[in-house]
Every structure is written in C-alpha cells, then in structure tokens.
Amino acid sequence: MLDREGMPMSTASIGLLRREDFAARRGTLLLWRCGDEGCQADLREYNGAAGDDVAVLLVADDAALAALREGGWAPLPALIRQGRLHPYMLKTMDELEEAGLAEFVEDLGLVFPKH
User: Fold this and answer.
1) Residue 42, helix vs strand vs coil
2) Which of 8, 12, 26, 20 is nearest to 64 (CA)?
3) pTM
4) Any residues with CB less than 8 A from the CB of 106 and at least 6 apart, and which?
C-alpha cells in the first residue's frame, strides 16, 4: 500500500493508532516509513508516547481504519474533516520539511503558520 500510495522518502515515521489505544495510552502503533531500504510498515508497542522518530500521529476510529484499508490515502482528508481521524503533528513544520513529510501534511489539508 505504501508504494502504491506514493509514501514519501522520509527520515521520520507516520504513526497510525486506534482511538481506543490512544485513550487507554497503551496498545499497538503502526509505523509507516519509506527510506533507503524502501517502504515498510512496522508495529511497535504504544505506551502513551509515539517515539522521537514519529513526526505525524494519526488517531482513527474503526470505521476510519476500514476506509483506509479499502481506499488507501484518498479518504484521509475527508476522514479528518468528519472527525473520524485526528492528526497530531509531533514535529514543527521545519522538522517536517527536513524529514520529507511536509508535502504529506499539506496534502491532508493541514496548514499551520511558521513563526
């Protein structure tokens, strides 16, 4: 899926977490990253902190996760607008640009000012 969706080359990861796991502050975090070795998805234990290597954390309900499985990244902006998926930027815009994820964030329709 990451190759098909055009996951950007990045030095940081995008994390995907179920809303229940986020609320409980424990569960399983799915990590997406595309580096020199290619695109990969990994699982990591979530204990309330995503980790320093995670730049964007996407917290989704079960219906949003199903929509992502079926439609790839295309439904992401609509899921955010509907409140079914909540994006958390864990890095500044400068850090996102440096990591290679600024365009991904902009494609979601998320904008935040540079100070």
Assistant:
1) strand
2) 20
3) 0.87
4) none
**CA dihedral sign of residues 20, 22, 27, 33:** positive
33 CB burial (10 A radius; 0-12, 13-18, 19+):
buried
What would the two tokens of residue 16 be? 């995907």
pLDDT tens digits for range 17-60: 999 999 999 999 999 998 888 888 899 999 999 999 999 999 99
Q: Kindly provide the residue ranges of all beta strands, DSSP E only, lying in the chain, ordered along the sequence.
A: 13-18, 27-35, 38-46, 54-60, 85-89
List of residues 6+ apart from 107 with CB closer than 8 A: 76, 77
46 alpha carbon, distance to own chain's centre? 14
Q: Which tokens belong to 25? A: 């502050």
State the first-to-last Cα distance of the chain, in angstroms, to the nearest integer.
35
